[in-house]
Design goal:
The complex is a heterodimer of chains A (318) and B (130). Chain A has helices spanning 44-51, 73-79, 95-103, 110-120, 134-146, 164-179, 191-197, 215-221, 238-241, 264-271, 286-294, 313-316, and strands spanning 4-15, 18-29, 33-38, 59-64, 80-83, 152-156, 183-188, 200-205, 208-214, 222-229, 245-251, 254-260, 276-282. In chain A, helix 4 (110-120) runs antiparallel to helix 5 (134-146). Chain A is elongated and about 75 Å long. The two termini of chain A are 31 Å apart. Chain A is α/β, with parallel strands linked by helices and 318 residues long. Chain B is mainly α and 130 residues long. Chain B has 5 helices and 2 strands; from the N terminus they run H-H-H-E-E-H-H. Chain B has helices spanning 13-27, 39-46, 50-62, 80-105, 110-129; strands spanning 66-69, 73-76. A two-stranded antiparallel sheet of chain B has the order 1-2. In chain B, a hairpin with a 3-residue loop joins strand 1 and strand 2 (73-76). In chain B, helix 1 crosses helix 3 (50-62) and helix 1 packs across helix 4 (80-105). The longest helix of chain B has 26 residues, at 80-105. Classes of the chains: A alpha/beta (318), B mainly alpha (130). Chain A binds chain B through residues 31-33, 168, 171-172, 175-176, 178-180, 192, 195-199, 216, 219, 277-278, 282-283, 285-287, and chain B through 5, 7-8, 10-14, 39-40, 43-44, 47-52, 105.
Chain lengths: 318, 130
């Protein structure tokens, strides 16, 4: 078994003058739920379509389950399940007919397996796809993919526009697959959902990976330090000046610094300074990490910043 | 046992699971010898990543709160109740400490704080009795 399910190196993609992906590196280990986050237009869908072999990159190496999506797209698609935000299904077919149609591409027990998922999802087997609600349509697409028992599942914005019950069904199937040792890659805007189901995240910003790794570790390495200064115009004490903060937000007397590797000693020292009150150490949420890595970094006024213009740039440097 | 996970409350999800399992044991919702849900079952139930649940279960095993029964799953250890009650009290002490610190910061005198505490305690134990 491969240790990494997806291996991406030096990947670049350009559409005309629009550089969509720039030198992307990513390793996705087997058996995890890996979330790809990014604003609209950050390059998530392009990256996923390259992985599925639908789009050719301009440069770089991509291996999915040890296969090259460009050279072996059919072998790959037999082992990978792909659910997009708007699945394309022949809408004149009934649910039963489309399952029969798909079964031709997979192993003999596909139909039986589809039947089980259809029952679990309450799919109306005799209804034509065109008469299904958006939620039912999405669940049909999911059942079609799950029935093939894929080693890797790729979801592109799977829950956008779905009601809470259908979303729950999607999330549940993701964690269940991971529990069986399969790998799930999903792109999403739903930071809250991602925070529950994903154990790894990568944040794409302007075609580059701004931050990636194990979610719990990322949250442990970055600390948000919040405090109030008695005199907002005075220069803060050395314990604060010495911190290498890469982002600073000031609201009157209150200051929030994003600090990498804040030590317990430094924190205690700051708590005991005179003129500084309400010192809090906040573990960032995924949403905060997302904002930090997609926004221009802002050095505190007392700290000279050589690279002010690189968004998330300081987060990248360990 | 019902777990309530809030990914946004600043406490890592695995830690929330550890705490809530301990609470359930301290309260008697889970009793010694009882099996806890498998990783896969709990992952489905609370829609949380199975590796996160695995991490929580590993910690509970390391702390000897649960033990592995070969082929059957994880069960609550015999001596776990006492420890879980202690752990719960410790978490309570930390929360109380935070409240007291906040009270002092807000300008209350220690005497005022302690009479406030006495008053609330008296009210609370009255409603407990009825």
């Amino acid at each position: 078994m491969e240790t990494s399910t997806i291996h991406i190196e030096g990947l670049s993609k350009r559409f005309g003058n629009n550089q969509v992906l720039r030198d992307v590196q990513l390793e996705i280990p087997a058996g995890c739920v890996y979330a790809l986050l990014g604003e609209n237009g950050a390059g998530k869908t392009t990256l996923i379509r390259i992985l599925m072999g639908y789009v050719k990159p301009n440069a770089g190496t991509v291996k999915v389950l040890g296969l090259s999506p460009q050279r072996e797209p059919f072998a790959l698609r037999r082992r990978v399940g792909y659910v997009s935000d708007f699945p394309v299904l022949y809408d004149w077919m009934t649910v039963k007919q489309i399952a029969w149609f798909c079964s031709a591409f997979y192993s003999a027990n596909y139909s039986e397996s589809f039947g089980r998922w259809a029952t679990q999802f309450d799919l109306p087997q005799e209804t034509r796809i065109r008469y299904l609600s958006k939620g039912m349509r999405a669940k049909t697409a999911l059942a079609l993919v799950l029935a093939s028992d894929p080693d890797l599942l790729v979801f592109d914005e799977p829950t956008s526009g779905l009601d809470p019950l259908v979303r729950k069904e999607f999330l549940r199937s993701m964690v269940d697959l991971a529990a069986q040792g399969k790998t799930v890659l999903l792109s999403s805007h739903q930071v809250q959902e991602v925070e529950r189901v994903a154990d790894h995240v990568a944040i794409l910003h302007a075609g580059k990976i701004a931050l990636n790794g194990e979610l719990d570790q990322l949250k442990d390495t970055v600390a948000l330090l919040r405090f109030s200064l008695h005199d907002p115009l005075a220069i803060p004490p050395a314990s604060i000046l010495n911190l290498q903060s890469f982002h600073c937000e000031i609201q009157g007397r209150s200051i929030q610094l994003a600090v990498r590797q804040l030590s317990a000693e430094a924190f205690e020292q700051i708590k005991n300074e005179t003129g500084i009150t309400d010192v809090q150490w906040i573990r960032p949420s995924l949403e905060e990490l997302f904002i930090l890595s997609t926004r221009e970094s802002q050095a505190p006024p007392w700290q000279a910043s050589p690279n002010k213009k690189i968004p998330g740039g300081n987060l990248l440097r360990a | 046992m019902f777990l309530k996970i809030d990914p946004n409350n600043g406490i890592p999800i695995y830690d929330q699971i550890v705490r809530q399992v301990k609470y359930a044991i301290a309260e008697g919702t889970l009793t010694p010898g009882q099996l806890i849900p498998s990783v896969r079952e709990l992952a489905r139930q609370i829609t949380v990543n199975p590796n996160t649940i695995q991490r929580a279960y590993q910690q509970l095993q390391d702390e000897e709160v649960v033990e592995s029964l070969r082929g059957r799953g994880l069960a609550v250890c015999r001596g776990a109740v006492k420890q879980c009650v202690q752990d719960r009290h410790e978490l309570l002490r930390v929360r109380l400490e935070q409240v007291i610190q906040e009270g002092l910061r807000s300008g209350l005198e220690p005497e005022q704080l302690s009479s406030l505490f006495e008053k609330i305690l008296k009210q609370a134990s009255k409603t407990e009795e009825t």
